[in-house]
TrEMBL record:
InterPro entries: T_IF-3_C_sf, T_IF-3_N_sf, Translation_initiation_fac3_CS, Translation_initiation_fac_3, Translation_initiation_fac_3_C, Translation_initiation_fac_3_N. Residues 181-218 are annotated as: Disordered. Residues 181-208 have a biased composition (Basic and acidic residues). The keyword Protein biosynthesis applies. This is Translation initiation factor IF-3. Belongs to the IF-3 family. IF-3 binds to the 30S ribosomal subunit and shifts the equilibrium between 70S ribosomes and their 50S and 30S subunits in favor of the free subunits, thus enhancing the availability of 30S subunits on which protein synthesis initiation begins. Residues 16-85 form the Translation initiation factor 3 N-terminal domain. The lineage of its organism: Bacteria, Bacillati, Actinomycetota, Actinomycetes, Actinomycetales. GO terms for biological process: ribosome disassembly. Keywords: Cytoplasm, Initiation factor, Protein biosynthesis. Monomer.
Length: 218
């Protein structure tokens, strides 16, 4: 580990047990109950009796707030959550769907279908309107079109970034209501169900074939 990473770890990790060098702390119990202000020696004794750690969770408070907890278990759970968050963030992609300002209803529904498919798959969608010629002088029409789209997909996503002008483009970002991992799990589940159904059909055909052969042999 480099010196800078080690220094960052020392700064960001809370003080625990004997490293807490203050006269008293505002103590919080393992279930979140408020114990009150106690001497740090008494707090350490309670931690030892409960086979837990005394962890300083709010050093800037006066007096500092400390909590009784299993610090090893806490660090493990936080690491698991961070890994899951990074994995989900890495899997999420930004898709782009372009609209024309003067779009007919059929094309609108087609484009909307693309947006829904991406959101349903757990991906964000950047919706783009390209202005042509004098269309750029009517940005309110672009906002109206994007709001119409957003209202039509509320079952699948929500507006993360409202419409804004970027040169001759107007952009809006929609975020999915469910995580990428959930969408992947659903696809995997559907594939497994389809595979099981195919296997059952093959088994049924095999049994019918065996029965037919048995009938012929009689």
């Amino acid at each position: 580990m480099t010196l800078s990473r080690e220094w960052s770890r020392v700064i960001t990790e809370p003080r625990i047990n004997e490293r807490i060098r203050v006269p008293e702390v505002r103590l919080v119990g393992p279930a979140g109950e408020q114990v009150g202000v106690v001497r740090v020696e008494d707090a350490l004794r309670l931690a030892q009796e409960a086979d837990l750690d005394l962890v300083e969770v709010a050093p800037e408070a006066r007096p500092p707030v400390a909590k009784l907890m299993d610090y090893g278990k806490y660090k493990y759970e936080m690491a698991q959550k961070e890994r899951a968050a990074r994995r989900n963030q890495a899997n999420t992609q930004m898709k782009e769907v372009q609209f024309r300002l003067k779009i007919d209803d059929h094309d609108f529904e087609t484009k909307r279908g693309h947006v829904v498919r991406f959101l349903n798959g757990g991906d964000k969608v950047k919706v783009v309107i390209m202005f042509r010629g004098r269309e750029q002088s009517r940005p309110e029409l672009g906002v109206k079109l994007l709001e119409r789209l957003a209202e039509s997909v509320t079952e699948y996503g929500t507006v993360e970034a409202r419409p804004r002008i970027d040169g001759r483009r107007m952009n809006m970002v929609l975020a999915p209501l469910r995580k990428k991992s959930e969408a992947i799990n659903e696809v995997r589940k559907r594939r497994e169900e389809a595979r099981d159904e195919r296997r059952a059909r093959r088994q049924e055909r095999s049994e019918r074939s065996g029965q037919a052969q048995a009938e012929k042999a009689k």
